[in-house]
Design a protein that fits this description.
The chain has 2 domains: 73 residues, Beta Barrel (OB fold (Dihydrolipoamide Acetyltransferase, E2P)); 146 residues, de novo design (two linked rop proteins), CATH 1.20.1440. It is α+β, with helices and mostly antiparallel strands.
């Protein structure tokens, strides 16, 4: 019989919470030292409203397990939860979905945990949409790098030249390429403070996305498109 793992005071955020059996919750947590962990919060749905673990709240979690799923034994909230509004809520769900699809359970990535915390801090900040978009692209870039897929800049790019990027050929010069060399070079070096560099970084990330999550598409981009459509519909 395998030994029981007991963990206490592990910094964590919830990526997902959903009903499990009659009165429990199934939790997926991103932790600092243990990676993604699946936990059952027994009786959580029958407990006092607001007392069960929530998204956007930092916790010190405790659990015990023998096998893939553990049993939550403690969730000590640390500070106030992050408050998000509008599209930033969907961006948080997008980041959570990425992590749930890209990370195997029990595969520690402290740098990804740090990048996720930085993303939540930026999304909850008051520095405008450009700052939030930069944080989102930085999070995607950190995920690529931590999982071994981040491309290198390669040869020096002509700032005024036009380039494309795809998974098979990498960076290629083309007269009608999608990106100027200056923007693509900035993206490949992680300098994402301009709109052209963020657009290039997004395209590079999209090219590598099947390596991270497989062929099944993410659901949150469609959710965001629907939200934007609703906003444009006349009342």
């Amino acid at each position: 019989m395998s030994a029981v793992e007991r963990v206490r005071d592990e910094p964590a955020y919830l990526l997902l919470r959903r009903p499990y059996r009659d009165s429990s919750l199934l939790l997926e947590a991103l932790t600092a030292a243990h990676g993604r962990v699946g936990l059952v919060a027994r009786g959580a749905r029958a407990s006092r409203r607001g007392s069960s673990p929530q998204l956007l709240q930092r916790y010190l979690l405790a659990w015990q397990r023998r096998g893939e799923l553990g049993t939550l034994t403690g969730a000590d909230a640390q500070g106030a939860p992050w408050l998000l509004g509008g599209e930033r809520v969907v961006w948080m769900w997008y980041a959570n979905e990425l992590l749930l699809r890209a990370l195997a359970r029990d595969d520690p990535h402290p740098d990804i945990f740090a990048a996720y915390v930085a993303l939540l801090e930026a999304l909850a900040g008051a520095n405008g949409e450009e700052s939030a978009q930069t944080a989102l692209r930085r999070f995607e870039w950190a995920l690529l790098g931590a999982l071994g897929y981040q491309p290198s800049a390669g040869e020096l790019l002509d700032p005024e030249g036009r380039y494309d990027y795809d998974l098979q050929r990498g960076v290629t010069r083309s007269g009608d390429g999608a990106f100027f060399g200056a923007a693509l070079d900035a993206a490949l070096h992680g300098a994402l403070d301009t709109a052209p560099a963020r657009a290039a970084a997004r395209a590079v990330f999209a090219a590598h996305l099947p390596e991270l999550i497989g062929d099944r598409p993410l659901q949150t981009p469609a959710m965001l498109r629907r939200l934007r459509t609703i906003r444009k519909e006349p009342s």
